[in-house]
Structures are given as structure tokens and as C-alpha cells.
Amino acid sequence: MKIRNRTLQRFVTWLLVKVVSLLYWTCRKRSRMEAAQISPYADTGDARYLYSIWHDQLTSAIFMYQPLHMSGLVSQHRDGSYVSDTMEMCGVLPVRGSTNRGGSRALRELLDLARDCHVAITPDGPRGPRRKVSEGIVFLASHSGRSIVPIAFGCNRCWRFKGSWTDLMIPKPFSILHGIAGRPLSIPSNLSREQLAQHTAILQDEMDRLQRDAELLAAGKSLPEPVIQQIRAAA
């Protein structure tokens, strides 16, 4: 059932945020950073990043800890209002738009925000394909000068709520949630169409690698300690 009353919609969202926050509070959380000062939940000094997060793991990104200096791109679809309200109530500044609706305006706003804020983007949203990186985040990185930090989550016990093209991962109470932030990818400016595709493929490989590692950790496996460094993608 669609809720059309805006006040009631925000109340339902507020109530849901409280419930989900309590659920995540019961979880044991483990974070793994492959570079220094890249956590979206801690002070990164003067550095600001574009965080790449799979659409099905957006809830974990918002509720694992409290994001700092964060903004995020949200679809202009009516259902995006729930996501936008949720982000706002969790201290994340929402920007409404997508590659299909409001994209130019949203891009200009994100470029402005990237000067002072981190920007979280789901590179496979809002219509998929699932866990397939689109070129939008690489284009934004090229024009903003901000590096991309790929992020993935894994959970030892979770629910999967099916949607039209993807699912949503929600940890079960008292489960163990793992979050991994990969090394920042620095994207050159003035990319050609071919270079844009090349850097998108590099980000896809990194997202896939981190997802495999997150799932290994969730399965109780151990990983070597990461080498703390920043890498520059080949031009």
C-alpha cells in the first residue's frame, strides 16, 4: 500500500529508522580499511571521497556506524522519498536525481558538494543490473578530482528482501557484519569514452574483489592484513 500523505510518510520512515537502528545495534561490527583515513565513519582530515557501495548494501552503509560529512545520490522515483528521508534522519545529505531523471541537475549539485562533503553512490542503481558498475561515478570522479573508495559488506546471517532487479541485505539480530573499504582509486581528468570504460572496469574489479573478501570474512575465514596505501589507476 502506497502512503501518499507526506507527514505520515515521514513518521513511518522515522519509526523504521528507529527499528533498523536497534537491529544494527545488536550486531557485532567489524571494519577493515586498506588505506589510512578513508573511513566514512571517521575523520578523514581535509580529504573527501566518492564512496562506491552496492545498492543491496546501502542500508548497511548507513546504519553500520554514523557517517560523517556524507551526502548521497537518491532516485527521484516516489519510493526514493523513503530512502531520502532515511538518509536525512541518519545525518546523510540526500541529492535527488539519477542518470535518467534529474541527472544534470544532480551532477552539478554533487560536484558542488564534493568540495566539502563525501559523496556515496550506488554504481548499480537505481535500475541495475545488480552489482554492475555504471560509468556515472567514474565520470563524477574525473570531473570533481575526488578519488573513489570502493566499499563492500558481508554478514554471517542476514535476510534478503527481493526487489524488482536486486535484493536488500538486512542482518539478522546479533549477527556479525563486516565492512571493507578498499584503496582509493584516483581517476584522471578529461577522460575519453574509451578511458572512461577502462576505469569503470577497474572499479568493477575492485568492487568484485572486496565483495569476495567480505563474504570470506562473513564465512569465518581470515584474510592477510591489508597494505595501507593509496593507488592510482592507470591512465
What would you note in describing this structure?
This protein has helices at residues 6-25, 58-63, 80-89, 103-113, 136-144, 193-218; strands spanning 28-33, 50-53, 70-74, 93-96, 118-121, 148-155, 158-162, 167-171, 176-181, 185-186, 231-232. Helix content is 35%, strand content 22%. Strand 10 (185-186), helix 6 (193-218) and strand 11 form a beta-alpha-beta unit. It has one domain. It contains 6 helices and 11 strands. The strands form 3 sheets. It has a 7-stranded mixed beta sheet with strand order 1-9-6-2-5-3-4, sandwiched between helices. Strands 7-8 form a two-stranded antiparallel ribbon. Strands 10-11 form a two-stranded parallel ribbon. It has 235 residues and is of the alpha/beta class. Helix 1 (6-25) crosses helix 3. The model is unreliable at 229-235 (pLDDT under 50).
TL;DR of this structure?
The chain is of the alpha/beta class and 235 residues long.
Q: Which ranges are low-confidence, i.e. pLDDT below 50, for 5 or more consecutive residues?
A: 229-235
Q: Please give the share of residues in helix.
A: 25-40%
Broad structural category:
alpha/beta
Number of helices: 6
- Assembly type: single chain
Give me the Rg, rounded.
Answer: 17 Å
Residues in β-strands, percent = 15-25%
Task: Write down how many β-strands occur, each being a DSSP E stretch of 2 or more residues.
Answer: 11
Descriptive labels:
single chain, 235 residues, alpha/beta, seven-stranded mixed sheet, two-stranded antiparallel sheet, 6 helices, 11 strands, globular, disordered C terminus
How are the SSEs ordered, and which strands pair?
Layout: H1 6-25, E1 28-33, E2 50-53, H2 58-63, E3 70-74, H3 80-89, E4 93-96, H4 103-113, E5 118-121, H5 136-144, E6 148-155, E7 158-162, E8 167-171, E9 176-181, E10 185-186, H6 193-218, E11 231-232
Parallel strand pairs: 1-9, 2-5, 2-6, 3-4, 3-5, 10-11
Antiparallel strand pairs: 6-9, 7-8
Helix pairs in contact: 1-3
